Structure formats: C-alpha cells, structure tokens
Amino acid sequence: MVIIQKGNKYTNSSSRDGHVPCCIVNHISAGSMGSMDNWFTSPSNDVSSAHFGVAKDGRIHQYVDIRRMAWANGLTATGTTQAPAKVVRDRSGINPNKYTISIEHEGVDGDLTEPQFSASVWLHRYIQQEVERIWGKTFELDNYNVIGHCHIDPIRKASCPGRKFPWGRLYSVLKEEQLDKVKVVVNGKIQKEGFLIDGVTYIPARVVAESLGASVAWDGNQKRVDIISK
C-alpha cells in the first residue's frame, strides 16, 4: 500500500518530549476524506490534527510524521485519571498525545468499507513496525494498546470512532496477524516482514520495487501506482 503525504506547514504538531509511541487511537472523521485533508492543512486550524487518515476506498493519507505529536487525543491531567483506557490511566498526568499515534477514518458511524478495513489493519501493522524501526520498541496490537478516542475521552468524544466501528473484527485480525507474519524475499535477500489479511500478503509496493532497482510514482488523480524499471 502507498501512504500519501498530505501535511503542510499549517498542519499542527509538537515534540513528543522524549515519549515513545505505544498506543494507536482510532477516530471517525464525521466527514469526507476531502474535508479531512482541507482541515488538517488549513491555516485557520490551530486546534487539531492527526497522523493518518484512511478513506473509504482504502487510500491512506499522512498528515504528521509519527516522530512528532499530533493534536488528536489530549486531556487535562485530571482527565487522564478518569479515562476508561487503562493505557491512559497507567500514564496519569501525561498528555496522551505524547505517546499515541492517531488514525482518522472517513465516515460518520464507524461502519468501515472492506477496502478501508483492510487498509486500516495494514496501517496498524505498519505503525507497529515503524515504532520498532525508529525507537527499537515494540507494543502488542491488543485492546490495551489499540483504542478509540471514546476510550480516552468518553464525555466529549463518546461517539468516536462510531457505534459501528468493528472492534471485535479488528482485534481478531490483528491477533491473527501477529502470529502469521510473512517474510518477503527479493533475490535472496529479506526486504521486510509483510503480513496476511484474508489470505492476501501486504507489503509496501515501494519496498519491493526499489529492491529490484525500480521507482514508484503515485498518481493521485487516477489513484494509480506506477512501478518504473530503471
């Protein structure tokens, strides 16, 4: 899958102040992917942001580098002691934005399309791998470390990521995937660990293409990936 970079100089972010991400927070956009793109890159937005967005057709947009803190899940110090999520209560007094990575999903009620669900599962695994690559730390993709905004702030965000969000299916697939990694070998050299979703192996196209000496170009208008041999 291809992650399309969308952040700009107006996209809100801050330092993590030394905190290593250990939690993924799922959100619902309550609008279209286009409105999400516009809001997270708008000069008039000085209140919120997210790391990623997942469209209904499976496109993944990135707004904030995961090395940075997005403005997505913050609470007051008092609020952290009352959050339903144990991962937040265990870090009482710390702004959850410091140690979380946020995923917005296009939609209004959390009823994800099949391409969207598959892309979100892929993205959860990608985030887990990137945290390990960047910080040398790992965390399980379980109901302690993968939560919704409602599990952080049940008062203001009780409906986020939506009443139809597929929590049971998500946890089940993520648990299966942790036991069923796939090693992708190109010309005898292991390039990256992929993983299975419903019998399909997923790995970034760029990893395989560049290992074969090709380049990858994304055409956003046609929603097409071009792999070009050198």
From TrEMBL:
One Pfam match: Amidase_2
Annotated EC: 3.5.1.28
GO annotation terms (biological process): cell wall organization; peptidoglycan catabolic process; peptidoglycan turnover
Positions of transmembrane segments: none
GO molecular function, one term: N-acetylmuramoyl-L-alanine amidase activity
InterPro entries referenced in this protein's UniProt entry, alphabetically: Amidase/PGRP_sf, Amidase_domain, Cu_amine_oxidase-like_N, Mao_N_sf, NAMLAA_amidase_2
Record field: catalytic activity: Hydrolyzes the link between N-acetylmuramoyl residues and L-amino acid residues in certain cell-wall glycopeptides
Catalytic EC class: hydrolase
Span of domain N-acetylmuramoyl-L-alanine amidase: 8-162
PANTHER family found in the cross-reference section: N-ACETYLMURAMOYL-L-ALANINE AMIDASE AMID
Entry protein name: N-acetylmuramoyl-L-alanine amidase
Source organism of the structure: Paenibacillus aquistagni
